[in-house]
Amino acid sequence: MTKMADNASSVEIVEGCRLPVLRKNQEHEDEWPLAEILSVKEVSSRKLYYVHYIDFNKRLDEWVTGDRLDMKKLQFPKKEAKTPTKNGLSGSRPSSPEREVRKSLDLNVQSTTAPSRGKTLPTPKRKVEAVPLATQVPPATPVPSLPSSAEASQASVFPAVRETNTFKSREDHEQISSLTTNGTARRLIPPQPGRKRKANCGGTDEMIKVLQYNNPQTASVFLPPPEDSQDSSDGIPSAPRMTGSLVSDRSHDDIVTRMKNIECIELGRHRLKPWYFSPYPQELTTLPILYLCEFCLKYLKSLKCLQRHLTKCNLRHPPGNEIYRKGTISFFEIDGRKNKNYSQNLCLLAKCFLDHKTLYYDTDPFLFYVMTEYDSKGFHIVGYFSKEKESTEDYNVACILTLPPYQRRGYGKLLIEFSYELSKVEGKTGTPEKPLSDLGLLSYRSYWSQTILEILMDLKPDNGERPQITINEISEITSVKKEDVISTLQYLNLINYYKGQYILTLSEDIVDGHERAMQKRHLRIDPKCLHFTPKDWSKRGKW
Q1: What would the DSSP string read from start to end of 152-198?
Q2: When you count CB atoms within 10 A of the terminal residue's CB, does the N or C end of the chain come out lower?
Q3: Catalytic site positions
Protein backbone atom coordinates (compact mmCIF):
# COMPACT_ATOMS: atom_id res chain seq x y z
CA MET A 1 0.00 0.00 0.00
CA THR A 2 2.82 2.43 0.77
CA LYS A 3 4.25 1.87 -2.70
CA MET A 4 0.91 2.78 -4.26
CA ALA A 5 0.76 5.90 -2.12
CA ASP A 6 4.26 6.86 -3.26
CA ASN A 7 3.27 6.31 -6.87
CA ALA A 8 0.16 8.43 -6.39
CA SER A 9 2.27 11.29 -5.12
CA SER A 10 4.90 10.94 -7.87
CA VAL A 11 2.40 10.71 -10.78
CA GLU A 12 -0.07 13.55 -11.02
CA ILE A 13 -3.60 12.17 -11.08
CA VAL A 14 -6.04 14.50 -12.81
CA GLU A 15 -9.81 14.50 -13.15
CA GLY A 16 -10.97 11.96 -15.72
CA CYS A 17 -8.26 9.38 -14.97
CA ARG A 18 -9.39 5.78 -14.57
CA LEU A 19 -7.78 3.12 -12.42
CA PRO A 20 -8.72 0.25 -10.06
CA VAL A 21 -9.65 1.38 -6.53
CA LEU A 22 -9.81 -0.77 -3.42
CA ARG A 23 -13.24 -1.15 -1.80
CA LYS A 24 -15.15 -3.63 0.34
CA ASN A 25 -18.02 -5.57 -1.24
CA GLN A 26 -21.19 -6.79 0.49
CA GLU A 27 -19.32 -9.77 1.91
CA HIS A 28 -16.69 -7.35 3.31
CA GLU A 29 -14.08 -8.78 0.94
CA ASP A 30 -11.52 -6.65 -0.88
CA GLU A 31 -12.17 -5.93 -4.55
CA TRP A 32 -10.59 -3.61 -7.12
CA PRO A 33 -13.30 -2.26 -9.47
CA LEU A 34 -12.38 0.26 -12.16
CA ALA A 35 -13.17 3.82 -11.07
CA GLU A 36 -13.06 7.32 -12.55
CA ILE A 37 -11.49 10.25 -10.70
CA LEU A 38 -14.07 13.04 -10.59
CA SER A 39 -12.25 15.47 -8.30
CA VAL A 40 -9.05 15.93 -6.31
CA LYS A 41 -8.62 17.97 -3.13
CA GLU A 42 -5.99 18.41 -0.45
CA VAL A 43 -6.89 18.25 3.26
CA SER A 44 -4.19 18.68 5.91
CA SER A 45 -1.44 18.23 3.27
CA ARG A 46 -3.04 14.92 2.22
CA LYS A 47 -4.61 14.38 -1.18
CA LEU A 48 -8.10 12.93 -1.43
CA TYR A 49 -9.72 11.63 -4.62
CA TYR A 50 -13.46 11.53 -5.34
CA VAL A 51 -14.09 8.34 -7.32
CA HIS A 52 -17.04 6.95 -9.25
CA TYR A 53 -16.96 3.16 -9.63
CA ILE A 54 -17.69 2.30 -13.26
CA ASP A 55 -20.92 0.26 -13.69
CA PHE A 56 -21.80 0.84 -10.01
CA ASN A 57 -24.59 3.08 -8.72
CA LYS A 58 -23.55 6.66 -8.00
CA ARG A 59 -24.56 6.35 -4.36
CA LEU A 60 -21.37 4.32 -3.81
CA ASP A 61 -19.15 7.22 -4.95
CA GLU A 62 -16.76 8.36 -2.22
CA TRP A 63 -13.58 10.21 -1.27
CA VAL A 64 -10.57 7.88 -1.03
CA THR A 65 -6.92 8.27 -0.08
CA GLY A 66 -3.98 7.58 -2.38
CA ASP A 67 -3.15 4.24 -0.74
CA ARG A 68 -6.37 2.75 -2.21
CA LEU A 69 -5.40 3.50 -5.82
CA ASP A 70 -3.71 0.95 -8.09
CA MET A 71 -1.31 3.16 -10.03
CA LYS A 72 -0.01 0.30 -12.18
CA LYS A 73 -3.20 0.35 -14.27
CA LEU A 74 -3.65 4.11 -14.47
CA GLN A 75 -5.50 5.30 -17.61
CA PHE A 76 -5.21 8.97 -18.49
CA PRO A 77 -8.26 10.73 -19.98
CA LYS A 78 -8.46 11.01 -23.75
CA LYS A 79 -8.31 14.47 -25.28
CA GLU A 80 -11.79 15.89 -25.72
CA ALA A 81 -12.96 17.50 -28.95
CA LYS A 82 -12.51 21.27 -28.97
CA THR A 83 -15.96 21.86 -30.37
CA PRO A 84 -19.06 21.51 -28.23
CA THR A 85 -21.02 18.28 -28.31
CA LYS A 86 -24.10 17.57 -30.34
CA ASN A 87 -26.58 14.98 -29.03
CA GLY A 88 -23.95 13.72 -26.60
CA LEU A 89 -21.48 12.89 -29.41
CA SER A 90 -18.18 14.75 -29.45
CA GLY A 91 -16.64 16.54 -32.40
CA SER A 92 -19.65 18.17 -34.05
CA ARG A 93 -21.10 21.63 -33.57
CA PRO A 94 -24.77 22.05 -32.75
CA SER A 95 -26.19 22.72 -36.17
CA SER A 96 -29.15 24.73 -37.33
CA PRO A 97 -31.20 24.14 -40.51
CA GLU A 98 -29.68 27.31 -42.04
CA ARG A 99 -26.14 26.05 -41.39
CA GLU A 100 -26.97 22.65 -42.89
CA VAL A 101 -28.36 24.28 -46.05
CA ARG A 102 -25.34 26.59 -46.29
CA LYS A 103 -22.99 23.65 -45.85
CA SER A 104 -24.70 21.61 -48.57
CA LEU A 105 -24.58 24.59 -50.97
CA ASP A 106 -20.87 25.10 -50.25
CA LEU A 107 -20.19 21.43 -50.90
CA ASN A 108 -22.12 21.54 -54.18
CA VAL A 109 -20.09 24.53 -55.34
CA GLN A 110 -16.84 22.78 -54.38
CA SER A 111 -17.81 19.63 -56.23
CA THR A 112 -18.28 21.62 -59.46
CA THR A 113 -15.17 23.76 -59.16
CA ALA A 114 -12.63 21.61 -57.32
CA PRO A 115 -11.65 17.94 -57.38
CA SER A 116 -13.25 15.72 -54.77
CA ARG A 117 -11.39 15.44 -51.46
CA GLY A 118 -13.45 12.69 -49.97
CA LYS A 119 -16.10 14.96 -48.41
CA THR A 120 -19.67 13.76 -48.43
CA LEU A 121 -22.92 15.39 -47.62
CA PRO A 122 -24.27 14.69 -44.15
CA THR A 123 -26.89 11.96 -44.26
CA PRO A 124 -29.78 11.87 -41.84
CA LYS A 125 -29.36 9.34 -39.06
CA ARG A 126 -31.75 6.44 -38.89
CA LYS A 127 -34.17 6.65 -36.02
CA VAL A 128 -33.63 3.81 -33.57
CA GLU A 129 -36.86 2.46 -32.19
CA ALA A 130 -37.06 1.26 -28.59
CA VAL A 131 -37.94 -2.42 -28.38
CA PRO A 132 -40.94 -2.97 -26.09
CA LEU A 133 -40.78 -5.63 -23.40
CA ALA A 134 -43.11 -7.83 -25.39
CA THR A 135 -40.19 -8.47 -27.72
CA GLN A 136 -37.51 -8.33 -25.05
CA VAL A 137 -38.73 -11.17 -22.87
CA PRO A 138 -39.02 -14.44 -24.77
CA PRO A 139 -41.71 -16.88 -23.60
CA ALA A 140 -40.75 -20.06 -21.80
CA THR A 141 -41.47 -22.21 -24.83
CA PRO A 142 -40.65 -21.59 -28.51
CA VAL A 143 -43.39 -19.47 -30.04
CA PRO A 144 -44.30 -19.66 -33.72
CA SER A 145 -45.93 -16.74 -35.49
CA LEU A 146 -49.11 -15.66 -33.76
CA PRO A 147 -52.25 -17.46 -34.95
CA SER A 148 -55.28 -15.58 -36.12
CA SER A 149 -58.26 -15.29 -33.79
CA ALA A 150 -60.15 -17.87 -35.88
CA GLU A 151 -57.35 -20.41 -35.54
CA ALA A 152 -57.06 -19.69 -31.84
CA SER A 153 -60.77 -20.28 -31.26
CA GLN A 154 -60.58 -23.66 -33.02
CA ALA A 155 -57.55 -24.82 -31.00
CA SER A 156 -58.13 -27.60 -28.48
CA VAL A 157 -57.57 -26.69 -24.84
CA PHE A 158 -55.54 -29.00 -22.58
CA PRO A 159 -53.82 -28.39 -19.27
CA ALA A 160 -50.21 -27.30 -19.62
CA VAL A 161 -48.12 -27.90 -16.53
CA ARG A 162 -44.78 -26.16 -16.10
CA GLU A 163 -41.87 -27.88 -14.40
CA THR A 164 -40.84 -25.27 -11.83
CA ASN A 165 -41.08 -21.53 -11.55
CA THR A 166 -39.76 -20.18 -8.30
CA PHE A 167 -39.98 -16.61 -7.11
CA LYS A 168 -37.11 -14.46 -8.28
CA SER A 169 -34.37 -13.70 -5.77
CA ARG A 170 -33.15 -10.16 -5.06
CA GLU A 171 -30.19 -10.82 -7.37
CA ASP A 172 -32.58 -11.59 -10.23
CA HIS A 173 -34.47 -8.40 -9.47
CA GLU A 174 -31.24 -6.41 -9.59
CA GLN A 175 -30.48 -7.79 -13.05
CA ILE A 176 -33.88 -6.59 -14.22
CA SER A 177 -33.18 -3.15 -12.75
CA SER A 178 -30.73 -2.56 -15.58
CA LEU A 179 -33.77 -1.92 -17.79
CA THR A 180 -34.36 1.52 -16.35
CA THR A 181 -31.63 2.68 -14.02
CA ASN A 182 -29.60 5.80 -14.38
CA GLY A 183 -27.80 5.66 -17.67
CA THR A 184 -26.98 1.94 -17.55
CA ALA A 185 -27.04 0.04 -20.82
CA ARG A 186 -30.02 -2.08 -21.77
CA ARG A 187 -29.59 -5.29 -23.74
CA LEU A 188 -32.22 -5.12 -26.42
CA ILE A 189 -33.28 -8.38 -28.03
CA PRO A 190 -34.36 -7.87 -31.64
CA PRO A 191 -37.96 -8.89 -32.34
CA GLN A 192 -38.48 -12.27 -33.94
CA PRO A 193 -40.07 -12.26 -37.39
CA GLY A 194 -43.79 -12.70 -37.28
CA ARG A 195 -44.04 -11.78 -33.57
CA LYS A 196 -45.02 -8.14 -33.83
CA ARG A 197 -48.72 -7.34 -33.76
CA LYS A 198 -50.59 -4.09 -33.89
CA ALA A 199 -52.34 -3.03 -30.71
CA ASN A 200 -55.76 -4.66 -30.67
CA CYS A 201 -58.30 -2.56 -28.81
CA GLY A 202 -60.45 -5.56 -28.07
CA GLY A 203 -57.58 -7.92 -27.34
CA THR A 204 -57.61 -7.46 -23.61
CA ASP A 205 -61.37 -7.89 -23.49
CA GLU A 206 -61.08 -11.55 -24.52
CA MET A 207 -61.90 -13.84 -21.63
CA ILE A 208 -59.11 -15.59 -19.74
CA LYS A 209 -60.09 -19.15 -18.82
CA VAL A 210 -58.77 -20.50 -15.53
CA LEU A 211 -58.37 -24.27 -15.46
CA GLN A 212 -58.43 -26.03 -12.08
CA TYR A 213 -56.58 -29.34 -11.91
CA ASN A 214 -56.79 -32.27 -9.56
CA ASN A 215 -54.03 -30.50 -7.65
CA PRO A 216 -55.80 -27.40 -6.29
CA GLN A 217 -52.49 -25.49 -6.08
CA THR A 218 -51.98 -25.46 -9.84
CA ALA A 219 -53.96 -23.48 -12.38
CA SER A 220 -53.58 -22.42 -15.99
CA VAL A 221 -54.94 -19.14 -17.31
CA PHE A 222 -55.51 -18.59 -21.02
CA LEU A 223 -54.46 -15.17 -22.28
CA PRO A 224 -54.98 -13.34 -25.55
CA PRO A 225 -51.78 -12.42 -27.40
CA PRO A 226 -50.28 -9.41 -25.60
CA GLU A 227 -50.53 -6.17 -27.53
CA ASP A 228 -47.44 -4.17 -28.29
CA SER A 229 -46.94 -2.00 -25.26
CA GLN A 230 -44.24 0.11 -23.81
CA ASP A 231 -42.85 -1.54 -20.72
CA SER A 232 -42.97 0.32 -17.44
CA SER A 233 -39.20 0.37 -17.43
CA ASP A 234 -38.60 2.22 -20.66
CA GLY A 235 -35.57 4.46 -21.00
CA ILE A 236 -34.93 8.05 -20.09
CA PRO A 237 -36.72 10.60 -22.23
CA SER A 238 -34.58 13.04 -24.14
CA ALA A 239 -35.92 16.07 -22.26
CA PRO A 240 -38.36 16.70 -19.43
CA ARG A 241 -41.91 17.54 -20.34
CA MET A 242 -43.09 21.09 -19.73
CA THR A 243 -46.23 19.96 -17.89
CA GLY A 244 -44.48 19.46 -14.58
CA SER A 245 -42.42 16.34 -15.20
CA LEU A 246 -39.67 15.67 -12.67
CA VAL A 247 -37.63 13.49 -15.03
CA SER A 248 -34.04 14.65 -15.11
CA ASP A 249 -32.53 15.77 -18.41
CA ARG A 250 -29.20 13.97 -18.07
CA SER A 251 -27.59 15.87 -20.96
CA HIS A 252 -26.88 18.77 -18.59
CA ASP A 253 -24.90 16.71 -16.05
CA ASP A 254 -21.64 18.34 -15.08
CA ILE A 255 -18.84 17.54 -12.65
CA VAL A 256 -20.55 19.48 -9.85
CA THR A 257 -23.87 17.66 -9.95
CA ARG A 258 -22.13 14.28 -10.27
CA MET A 259 -20.61 14.64 -6.79
CA LYS A 260 -22.30 14.46 -3.40
CA ASN A 261 -22.15 17.88 -1.82
CA ILE A 262 -23.69 17.24 1.61
CA GLU A 263 -21.70 15.20 4.11
CA CYS A 264 -24.42 14.37 6.64
CA ILE A 265 -28.02 15.39 7.45
CA GLU A 266 -29.55 15.30 10.92
CA LEU A 267 -33.32 14.84 10.72
CA GLY A 268 -34.97 14.33 14.10
CA ARG A 269 -33.39 11.31 15.78
CA HIS A 270 -31.77 10.11 12.55
CA ARG A 271 -28.52 11.01 10.82
CA LEU A 272 -28.60 10.40 7.08
CA LYS A 273 -25.70 10.11 4.65
CA PRO A 274 -26.88 11.50 1.29
CA TRP A 275 -26.43 9.40 -1.83
CA TYR A 276 -26.48 12.11 -4.51
CA PHE A 277 -26.07 15.81 -5.18
CA SER A 278 -28.77 18.20 -3.95
CA PRO A 279 -28.76 21.97 -4.67
CA TYR A 280 -28.71 23.23 -1.09
CA PRO A 281 -27.11 26.71 -0.70
CA GLN A 282 -23.37 26.67 -1.36
CA GLU A 283 -22.42 27.92 2.12
CA LEU A 284 -24.09 24.87 3.72
CA THR A 285 -22.15 22.30 1.69
CA THR A 286 -18.95 22.80 3.67
CA LEU A 287 -20.61 21.96 7.01
CA PRO A 288 -19.92 18.56 8.59
CA ILE A 289 -23.64 18.23 9.46
CA LEU A 290 -26.69 19.92 7.95
CA TYR A 291 -29.57 20.20 10.45
CA LEU A 292 -33.20 19.91 9.34
CA CYS A 293 -36.36 20.55 11.32
CA GLU A 294 -38.20 17.25 10.99
CA PHE A 295 -41.63 18.94 10.91
CA CYS A 296 -41.20 21.88 8.48
CA LEU A 297 -37.95 20.54 6.88
CA LYS A 298 -36.24 23.94 7.12
CA TYR A 299 -32.45 23.60 6.84
CA LEU A 300 -30.17 25.19 9.46
CA LYS A 301 -26.39 25.42 9.80
CA SER A 302 -25.91 24.48 13.47
CA LEU A 303 -27.51 22.64 16.37
CA LYS A 304 -27.97 25.91 18.25
CA CYS A 305 -29.85 27.40 15.29
CA LEU A 306 -32.06 24.28 15.18
CA GLN A 307 -32.84 24.49 18.89
CA ARG A 308 -33.74 28.15 18.57
CA HIS A 309 -35.93 27.34 15.53
CA LEU A 310 -37.79 24.56 17.40
CA THR A 311 -38.88 27.03 20.08
CA LYS A 312 -40.64 29.05 17.36
CA CYS A 313 -41.81 26.26 14.99
CA ASN A 314 -45.42 25.37 15.80
CA LEU A 315 -45.68 22.44 13.37
CA ARG A 316 -45.82 18.91 14.75
CA HIS A 317 -47.00 17.36 11.51
CA PRO A 318 -46.67 18.17 7.78
CA PRO A 319 -48.87 21.07 6.64
CA GLY A 320 -51.97 20.12 4.68
CA ASN A 321 -54.86 17.73 5.21
CA GLU A 322 -54.57 14.39 6.98
CA ILE A 323 -56.46 12.07 4.64
CA TYR A 324 -55.54 8.69 6.15
CA ARG A 325 -54.82 7.35 9.63
CA LYS A 326 -54.61 3.79 10.89
CA GLY A 327 -52.66 2.99 14.02
CA THR A 328 -49.52 5.14 14.00
CA ILE A 329 -49.44 5.57 10.19
CA SER A 330 -50.86 8.76 8.68
CA PHE A 331 -50.86 10.34 5.22
CA PHE A 332 -51.01 14.09 4.62
CA GLU A 333 -51.98 15.71 1.31
CA ILE A 334 -49.95 18.87 0.61
CA ASP A 335 -50.66 21.28 -2.23
CA GLY A 336 -47.44 22.46 -3.86
CA ARG A 337 -48.95 25.89 -4.45
CA LYS A 338 -50.40 26.51 -0.99
CA ASN A 339 -47.38 25.12 0.92
CA LYS A 340 -44.54 26.16 -1.36
CA ASN A 341 -41.77 26.41 1.26
CA TYR A 342 -42.44 22.97 2.69
CA SER A 343 -42.72 21.43 -0.79
CA GLN A 344 -39.40 22.95 -1.91
CA ASN A 345 -37.66 21.80 1.29
CA LEU A 346 -39.09 18.30 0.75
CA CYS A 347 -37.76 18.28 -2.83
CA LEU A 348 -34.30 19.34 -1.62
CA LEU A 349 -34.23 16.50 0.91
CA ALA A 350 -35.56 13.97 -1.61
CA LYS A 351 -32.94 14.95 -4.21
CA CYS A 352 -30.25 13.66 -1.81
CA PHE A 353 -31.61 10.14 -2.44
CA LEU A 354 -33.05 10.39 -5.98
CA ASP A 355 -30.58 10.70 -8.85
CA HIS A 356 -32.89 10.28 -11.84
CA LYS A 357 -35.22 13.15 -10.96
CA THR A 358 -34.54 16.85 -11.24
CA LEU A 359 -35.62 19.55 -8.84
CA TYR A 360 -38.21 22.12 -9.81
CA TYR A 361 -38.68 25.12 -7.57
CA ASP A 362 -42.06 25.61 -9.22
CA THR A 363 -44.01 23.09 -7.14
CA ASP A 364 -47.44 24.51 -8.11
CA PRO A 365 -48.40 21.67 -10.53
CA PHE A 366 -47.82 18.98 -7.89
CA LEU A 367 -49.51 17.35 -4.93
CA PHE A 368 -47.32 15.76 -2.24
CA TYR A 369 -48.48 12.83 -0.12
CA VAL A 370 -46.30 12.49 2.99
CA MET A 371 -46.41 9.33 5.09
CA THR A 372 -45.69 9.79 8.80
CA GLU A 373 -45.30 7.71 11.93
CA TYR A 374 -46.87 9.11 15.10
CA ASP A 375 -45.48 9.16 18.63
CA SER A 376 -45.78 11.46 21.66
CA LYS A 377 -43.50 14.09 20.05
CA GLY A 378 -45.42 14.39 16.78
CA PHE A 379 -45.75 12.99 13.26
CA HIS A 380 -42.32 11.96 11.91
CA ILE A 381 -41.79 11.79 8.13
CA VAL A 382 -41.17 8.27 6.81
CA GLY A 383 -41.47 8.83 3.05
CA TYR A 384 -43.55 10.54 0.40
CA PHE A 385 -44.66 10.51 -3.19
CA SER A 386 -45.66 13.36 -5.46
CA LYS A 387 -48.06 13.40 -8.39
CA GLU A 388 -49.13 15.90 -11.01
CA LYS A 389 -52.48 17.59 -10.48
CA GLU A 390 -53.18 16.98 -14.17
CA SER A 391 -51.37 14.15 -15.92
CA THR A 392 -51.99 13.62 -19.62
CA GLU A 393 -50.17 10.26 -19.50
CA ASP A 394 -52.00 8.65 -16.55
CA TYR A 395 -49.08 9.05 -14.16
CA ASN A 396 -50.18 8.56 -10.55
CA VAL A 397 -46.65 9.06 -9.14
CA ALA A 398 -43.94 11.52 -10.17
CA CYS A 399 -41.38 10.96 -7.39
CA ILE A 400 -41.50 8.35 -4.64
CA LEU A 401 -39.08 7.93 -1.75
CA THR A 402 -38.78 6.05 1.53
CA LEU A 403 -36.12 7.65 3.72
CA PRO A 404 -33.14 5.31 4.34
CA PRO A 405 -33.84 4.68 8.08
CA TYR A 406 -37.24 3.24 7.13
CA GLN A 407 -36.23 1.20 4.09
CA ARG A 408 -36.63 -2.61 3.92
CA ARG A 409 -39.52 -2.46 6.40
CA GLY A 410 -42.48 -2.52 4.01
CA TYR A 411 -43.06 1.23 3.84
CA GLY A 412 -42.17 1.44 0.14
CA LYS A 413 -44.95 -0.98 -0.84
CA LEU A 414 -47.32 0.90 1.48
CA LEU A 415 -46.61 4.14 -0.42
CA ILE A 416 -47.20 2.38 -3.74
CA GLU A 417 -50.40 0.75 -2.49
CA PHE A 418 -51.66 4.12 -1.26
CA SER A 419 -51.00 5.73 -4.66
CA TYR A 420 -53.17 3.05 -6.31
CA GLU A 421 -55.90 3.47 -3.67
CA LEU A 422 -56.09 7.14 -4.66
CA SER A 423 -56.36 6.07 -8.32
CA LYS A 424 -59.24 3.73 -7.40
CA VAL A 425 -61.12 6.59 -5.73
CA GLU A 426 -60.46 8.76 -8.81
CA GLY A 427 -61.75 5.96 -11.04
CA LYS A 428 -58.54 5.84 -13.09
CA THR A 429 -55.72 3.46 -13.86
CA GLY A 430 -52.24 4.79 -13.13
CA THR A 431 -48.57 4.14 -13.62
CA PRO A 432 -45.40 5.70 -12.15
CA GLU A 433 -43.43 8.26 -14.15
CA LYS A 434 -40.38 6.74 -15.84
CA PRO A 435 -37.54 6.09 -15.39
CA LEU A 436 -37.73 4.26 -12.08
CA SER A 437 -34.62 4.02 -9.95
CA ASP A 438 -33.18 0.57 -9.25
CA LEU A 439 -34.79 0.39 -5.80
CA GLY A 440 -38.03 1.88 -7.14
CA LEU A 441 -38.24 -0.76 -9.85
CA LEU A 442 -37.72 -3.53 -7.29
CA SER A 443 -40.58 -2.23 -5.17
CA TYR A 444 -42.97 -1.74 -8.09
CA ARG A 445 -42.20 -5.14 -9.64
CA SER A 446 -42.81 -6.80 -6.28
CA TYR A 447 -46.06 -4.88 -5.68
CA TRP A 448 -47.43 -5.57 -9.16
CA SER A 449 -46.53 -9.27 -8.90
CA GLN A 450 -48.17 -9.74 -5.50
CA THR A 451 -51.29 -7.75 -6.45
CA ILE A 452 -51.90 -9.60 -9.73
CA LEU A 453 -51.19 -13.04 -8.25
CA GLU A 454 -53.62 -12.22 -5.42
CA ILE A 455 -56.35 -11.55 -8.00
CA LEU A 456 -55.63 -14.72 -10.01
CA MET A 457 -55.49 -16.98 -6.96
CA ASP A 458 -58.77 -15.65 -5.58
CA LEU A 459 -60.68 -16.62 -8.74
CA LYS A 460 -63.22 -19.37 -8.02
CA PRO A 461 -65.36 -21.55 -10.30
CA ASP A 462 -68.78 -20.10 -11.16
CA ASN A 463 -71.65 -22.63 -11.36
CA GLY A 464 -69.19 -25.43 -11.94
CA GLU A 465 -67.62 -23.63 -14.88
CA ARG A 466 -64.06 -22.44 -15.06
CA PRO A 467 -63.66 -18.84 -13.84
CA GLN A 468 -62.88 -16.26 -16.49
CA ILE A 469 -61.25 -12.83 -16.33
CA THR A 470 -59.80 -10.30 -18.77
CA ILE A 471 -56.71 -8.11 -18.65
CA ASN A 472 -59.03 -5.10 -18.58
CA GLU A 473 -60.83 -6.49 -15.53
CA ILE A 474 -57.53 -7.05 -13.70
CA SER A 475 -56.59 -3.46 -14.56
CA GLU A 476 -59.93 -2.10 -13.32
CA ILE A 477 -59.80 -4.06 -10.04
CA THR A 478 -56.24 -3.03 -9.20
CA SER A 479 -56.03 0.37 -11.01
CA VAL A 480 -52.73 -0.89 -12.48
CA LYS A 481 -52.33 0.14 -16.10
CA LYS A 482 -52.84 -2.62 -18.72
CA GLU A 483 -49.26 -2.32 -19.98
CA ASP A 484 -47.93 -2.88 -16.45
CA VAL A 485 -50.18 -5.92 -15.98
CA ILE A 486 -48.93 -7.53 -19.20
CA SER A 487 -45.26 -6.69 -18.57
CA THR A 488 -45.50 -8.12 -15.02
CA LEU A 489 -46.92 -11.41 -16.32
CA GLN A 490 -44.04 -11.55 -18.80
CA TYR A 491 -41.52 -10.62 -16.11
CA LEU A 492 -42.74 -13.47 -13.89
CA ASN A 493 -42.29 -15.76 -16.90
CA LEU A 494 -45.80 -17.15 -16.49
CA ILE A 495 -46.85 -16.87 -20.14
CA ASN A 496 -46.44 -19.96 -22.33
CA TYR A 497 -47.64 -20.84 -25.81
CA TYR A 498 -49.85 -23.89 -25.97
CA LYS A 499 -52.17 -25.25 -28.68
CA GLY A 500 -52.37 -21.99 -30.57
CA GLN A 501 -53.01 -19.86 -27.50
CA TYR A 502 -51.04 -17.95 -24.91
CA ILE A 503 -51.58 -19.51 -21.50
CA LEU A 504 -50.51 -18.37 -18.06
CA THR A 505 -49.43 -21.16 -15.73
CA LEU A 506 -49.33 -20.85 -11.95
CA SER A 507 -47.14 -23.61 -10.57
CA GLU A 508 -46.94 -24.78 -6.96
CA ASP A 509 -43.64 -22.91 -6.57
CA ILE A 510 -45.23 -19.63 -7.67
CA VAL A 511 -48.19 -20.13 -5.32
CA ASP A 512 -46.00 -21.11 -2.35
CA GLY A 513 -43.62 -18.21 -2.97
CA HIS A 514 -46.52 -15.77 -3.17
CA GLU A 515 -48.06 -17.05 0.09
CA ARG A 516 -44.73 -16.74 1.90
CA ALA A 517 -44.29 -13.18 0.61
CA MET A 518 -47.80 -12.17 1.69
CA GLN A 519 -47.22 -13.55 5.20
CA LYS A 520 -44.28 -11.15 5.59
CA ARG A 521 -46.31 -8.18 4.34
CA HIS A 522 -47.83 -6.86 7.54
CA LEU A 523 -48.41 -3.23 6.51
CA ARG A 524 -51.48 -2.79 4.29
CA ILE A 525 -53.70 0.15 3.36
CA ASP A 526 -57.24 -0.04 4.77
CA PRO A 527 -59.59 1.72 2.28
CA LYS A 528 -62.08 2.39 5.11
CA CYS A 529 -59.54 4.71 6.79
CA LEU A 530 -59.07 6.81 3.64
CA HIS A 531 -60.94 10.12 3.61
CA PHE A 532 -60.18 11.55 0.20
CA THR A 533 -62.26 13.52 -2.30
CA PRO A 534 -60.59 13.98 -5.71
CA LYS A 535 -60.66 17.43 -7.29
CA ASP A 536 -61.08 18.39 -10.92
CA TRP A 537 -57.81 20.24 -11.47
CA SER A 538 -58.70 21.07 -15.06
CA LYS A 539 -60.64 24.00 -13.61
CA ARG A 540 -57.91 26.51 -12.90
CA GLY A 541 -59.93 28.00 -10.06
CA LYS A 542 -59.08 24.88 -8.01
CA TRP A 543 -55.38 25.80 -8.13
Answers
A1: HHHS-------S--PPPPHHHHHHHGGGTSTT----PPPPPTT----
A2: N
A3: 433
